[in-house]
Amino acid sequence: MHFINNHADWIKDHWIEQAIQKTGYRIPFDFFKNSKVFEEEEKGMRQSMDPSEIAIYRTYGTTGTFFHLLEAQLFDFELDRPPWIDNNKKFTWWMTKMYPGQYIPAHQDVIKRDDPDSKRYWVPLFDWQPGHVFMYESETFTDYKAGDVFLYDNLRAWHCGINIGTKLRLIMQVTEYGDIND
Amino acid sequence: MSEKIEYIGNFRDWIKDSWLSEVTLNKGFAMPRNSLRNEARFNPWLKQFIHDIDHVHTKAEYEEIKRLLELEDDNDPVIKHAKDISLVYLDPIRNTPQGAADFDEEFDMYHNSNYDIFGNYFSLIEKFDLSFDIMDDPPPFLEHKDKHITWWFSKMSPGHRMPVHVDRAKPDIEINKYWMPWTDYSPGHIFSIGDKVITDYKAGDVYKFNYAGDWHGACNIGYLDRIVLQITDYKPSRNI
């Protein structure tokens, strides 16, 4: 994972305000609450989970709240096009919100969009705080500023994050994929 | 790596297989949930009030303990410790904002950040819990002559997390801390100090830091247990 640039000017205050107010999906609690995820997957009714994701649920259970997932459709605003994204590409985004004590165990992402050239960016929306940890393979990222943009070098790298600090941790993830005309 | 942390070397050969097996099998004490129970084992004053691990004292019991404590000699370090730290653990309203008000700044901070201040952050294994004493075969990296040595193991299972904090230390005493993992690094094993995180270590690696005045914390968001030996040494002053 490597640093691209800082785009703090692109971030709007009302994005942050809404993200703080919204609960979003409590992962994995809400994910499992109303659906039989494993059964649906076996029947081919949903895309297969990555084995690392299954390992998370088997080890950590499915009834807690590891973190809050805030997807684009939850918000009342349209995100301005991220300035670092290729103008010929589509993009999708979401946020992860972690209160003190919350975390996402080590896992590998599923590359959901069938595009070998897709790119994923990691964008903290707050400055780094002690206890805010993001690990990507054996690298850790600290001392970052709100609006720093990092690119995942390998979409299948093991990574995890935790907030063992005392302040909220809010991260935006942006995926660039496909041709804008497709 | 921070200037305050120094990698000393790998001393895996010093770790006896029998020690490692014993520590691996020992469940230890859930901390801070059972810290008072743990402490009561070697604090005779406290022991009389801790009958079983899950007992929550009534307000009347708590008031009586408080009254008895007031009758004791403040110069006794056991009594002083009981007054400063232990008493709040006995308060039945300890996990409410009103009870938390009696805690020090560190606990206030945890409480205000919505941590369960009586949760299970890690398992503590002390020498009282083990059949061996590492000082019978002192660690080769330790300069222990004329020094007071304390050691313990912290064991973190998947999901355990110790919020960031700053160690309390007496500023007039030079303290060395040694951090020695007994398990290889595995993804999700995190020890964070200042803006650094120690990764990619091997069992037996030793890191030394003078004083954990920096914010530090640890967690295991991986899949394998993480076991770390922690050693502290200091040279007692004549007043101690």
3D architecture notes:
The complex is a heterodimer of chains A (182) and B (240). By secondary structure, chain A is of the alpha+beta class. Chain A has a single domain, classed as Jelly Rolls (Sandwich). Chain A has helices at 13-21, 29-33, 37-42, 51-60, and strands at 2-6, 25-28, 65-71, 89-98, 103-107, 119-124, 132-136, 139-141, 148-151, 159-163, 169-179. In chain A, strand 7 and strand 8 form a beta hairpin. Chain B has 240 residues and is an alpha+beta fold. Chain B folds into two domains: 1-32 and 119-240, Jelly Rolls, CATH 2.60.120; 34-118, no CATH class. In chain B, 24% of the residues lie in helices and 27% in strands. In chain B, the strands form two sheets. Chain B has a seven-stranded antiparallel β-sheet. A four-stranded antiparallel β-sheet of chain B has the order 5-10-7-8, with no helix packed on it. In chain B, strand 7 (189-193) and strand 8 (196-198) form a beta hairpin. The A-B interface holds A 55, 59-60, 99-101, 103-106, 128, 130-131, 133, 135, 137-140, 142-143, 158, 160, 162, 164-167 and B 109-110, 112-115, 158-159, 161-164, 185, 187-188, 190, 192, 194-197, 199-200, 215, 217-219, 221-223.
Helix and strand topology:
The complex is a heterodimer of chains A (182) and B (240).
Chain A: E1 2-6, H1 13-21, E2 25-28, H2 29-33, H3 37-42, H4 51-60, E3 65-71, E4 89-98, E5 103-107, E6 119-124, E7 132-136, E8 139-141, E9 148-151, E10 159-163, E11 169-179
Antiparallel strand pairs in A: 1-9, 2-3, 3-4, 4-11, 5-10, 6-9, 6-11, 7-8, 7-10
Chain B: E1 5-10, H1 17-25, E2 29-32, H2 35-40, H3 44-47, H4 59-71, H5 77-90, H6 97-100, H7 105-112, E3 120-126, E4 148-156, E5 161-165, E6 175-181, E7 189-193, E8 196-198, E9 205-209, E10 216-220, E11 226-234
Antiparallel strand pairs in B: 1-9, 2-3, 3-4, 4-11, 5-10, 6-9, 6-11, 7-8, 7-10
